[in-house]
Amino acid sequence: MSKDWSVSTMTWYAVFIWFGASLFSQSVYMAFNGQPYDANLMLESAGPFAWVLIAIELFVWAIVAIFFGGKVLNRVQVKGPEMAPVDAI
Fold first, then answer.
1. Residue 36: phi, psi to the nearest 5?
2. Nearest to 71 by CA among 15, 2, 30, 4
3. Most exposed: 4, 13, 37, 61, by fewest CB within 10 Å?
4. Which pTM value belongs to this model?
């Protein structure tokens, strides 16, 4: 019996895979070149699309931050009692 994953679970897997792939890519580049990516060179090579790429990445990270912040707030919130206390005499 297979159970479908929730959108939240798939989103977190996507973020972890994206982050892991980025770290792996950076480590392979450093192994061959001895230094990390040069951000300025990468932006120059993107040409006029550099600002579009930056905007997309900022948008994605903002969405991740909003969802993560919402989850943290839901965990931290102090919830009131579900049933009103009854004072016994």
1. -70, 170
2. 15
3. 4
4. 0.53
